[in-house]
Amino acid sequence: MNKYLSRVSLYTPDLEPALEFYRSLGLEPRRELPARKGHRAVELGFSGSPGQASSEAACLILHDDPRRQFTDLEIEVEDVRELYKTLKLNPAILWLELPGEGADGWQATLRGPDGNVLHIHSS
């Protein structure tokens, strides 16, 4: 299995101007995503990302939920459980969600030493 960046999620206080801006860069809205009541989340992506299967094409998610004012990334890795074993003793990493099996594979969430939130996943 290849490792790849699958998603970047960004907060924006005003979704419509942000959507217009990212459209001007060539990103196209793909779908509305579930969001907390009174808020929206939209997935965008480039059509026909060269060299990638559609399941591996990274997407951008824009949302307007002020409770999630941070950037987070989703990264597909070889094995979430092995990565956890490797990184669990690093005191600079905070595990927000320990590895667990979900509907489409193993996943975990961590805050890296730089403060960014990473969702890691393996099929």
UniProtKB/TrEMBL annotation:
Family matches, as SUPFAM superfamilies: Glyoxalase/Bleomycin resistance protein/Dihydroxybiphenyl dioxygenase
VOC domain location: 4-123
Domain of life: Bacteria
InterPro entries, A to Z: Glyas_Bleomycin-R_OHBP_Dase (IPR029068), Glyas_Fos-R_dOase_dom (IPR004360), VOC_core (IPR037523)
Protein name: Glyoxalase/bleomycin resistance protein/dioxygenase
